[in-house]
Design brief:
single chain; mainly alpha; 3-stranded antiparallel sheet; 5 helices; 10% strand
């Protein structure tokens, strides 16, 4: 049983990606305990080099999504790739969809925008 919590994702509205980040920009004010826990889960998931490579492979893949068959060459076995992708999903950084025998992963645009706003303090729509 996992005690992981998903980061909130916001659906686009009116043709624009509306973003409500998990936390305020680092430069805005100190995090509350809950905000710090949420951000820590996200960064912990990305703190592993294999996970970061997988996340980058999905985020940079043409069309914004990638089949697991296209991104599994990261120097570890297939079961280990699956484990790391599961951890990224549990952290709310990836979503997936099964199509036939393959699973396709995508990084939600709102996640990237929220991460950028958290780190830079720049409004996501700027």
């Amino acid at each position: 049983m996992s005690n992981a919590k998903l980061l909130p994702l916001i659906e686009p509205s009116d043709g624009q990606a509306a973003v409500t980040p998990c936390c305020p920009p680092l430069t805005e004010r100190p995090f509350s305990a809950e905000e710090a826990e949420t951000a820590a889960r996200m960064f912990k998931a990305l703190g592993d080099p294999v996970r970061l490579r997988l996340f980058s492979a999905v985020a940079s893949h043409e069309g914004g999504e990638a089949c697991v068959c296209d991104i599994s060459d990261v120097g570890v076995s297939q079961p280990t790739v699956s484990h790391h992708l599961k951890k990224l999903k549990e952290a709310g950084l990836l979503s997936s969809e099964r199509r036939g025998t393959w699973v396709y992963y995508r990084v939600e645009p709102s996640v990237l925008a929220a991460m950028g706003k958290l780190l830079t303090g720049v409004p996501a729509n700027a």
